[in-house]
Amino acid sequence: MTQTVTPNSTTETKVKVKMGDNNYGKADVRLFKVFRAQPRHEIKDVWVRVAMRGDFDAAHVSGDNTGLLATDTVRNTIYGLAVDGLTSSVEAFGKHLIRHFVNQGPKVESATAYFTEHQWGRMHANGAEHNHSFVRQMPKHTAVVEGDGETFTVTSGIEELFILKTTQSGWEGYHKEEFTTLPETNDRILATVVSSKWEYQVDECDYDDVWQRVYTSLLDTFTDHYSHSMQATLYKIGETVLTRCPEISRIYFSFPNRHHIQYNTERHGVQNPKSVFHADAEPYGQIEGWVERA
């Protein structure tokens, strides 16, 4: 038996809306470049995202794509401009990309370029650095470049840097109340996964050189003092970075405290002289903050 469906005779009244902030572009563009001008090759391994902003209301509201760049064009442009345009830092390349998209996109008013650059170190052969063989390193160089083709804001960063020291760290003198269970210690493992970003107080600089100085300052300072807390270490690292890098106005750190807890082997009759630890996956402390010029 066929059932007849009667359409709803009432017409839904739509509310009035307008298009809010929006952007579009291409993400996860995996760009790899080899610099072959010399026998000793250099490489750049970068994931890129470009987001364009402008007068795109017609595309959303009425489906009118007039004047819009295709996202496929955005991808092709990133690769095409990298041939001659990616010659130094990803930050400089970001400015180059944004200028192009603002100039070539009839409705593009500004853009943001996001970069994640994977670091590679040289392999060694017979005790010497190899000219064209590499091994991937842990930290990533991140960058965000925003601009309208004439003025730019640049933020650089470090991600996924795992650091640890086995002593010269403690946690004492903190407030205790009814739910406190953690005992004080003046000798613990301090471990974290660094996320950092920084802003510039100059319009132009050697961004790769600044990144390297930040990275070196972070490692130098992490090792050179007794850490009363992750907070105190964060502040010391920021102070060192701003001392060594006059180009930077302020720097942010996120330090999850990856706890390493001495394992209780004594219950099995085995002494553990602070040598065997459990790398804890339980909830962890999270320490974050900006260090700024006074």
Structure description:
The chain has helices at 57-61, 71-85, 90-104, 207-223, 230-244; strands at 24-35, 42-54, 108-125, 128-147, 152-165, 190-200, 248-257, 260-262, 277-279, 285-292. It has 294 residues and is an alpha+beta fold. The strands form 2 sheets. The chain has an 8-stranded antiparallel sheet with strand order 1-2-3-4-5-6-7-10. Strands 8-9 form a two-stranded antiparallel ribbon. The chain folds into 2 domains: 22-150, Urate Oxidase; 160-294, Urate Oxidase (Roll). The chain contains 5 helices and 10 strands; from the N terminus they run E-E-H-H-H-E-E-E-E-H-H-E-E-E-E. The mean pLDDT is 95. The radius of gyration is 26 Å and the shape is globular. Helix 4 packs antiparallel against helix 5.
Tally of individual domains: 2
Q: Fraction of residues in helices?
A: 10-25%
Class by SSE composition: alpha+beta
Radius of gyration: 26 Å
Gross CATH architecture of the largest domain: Roll
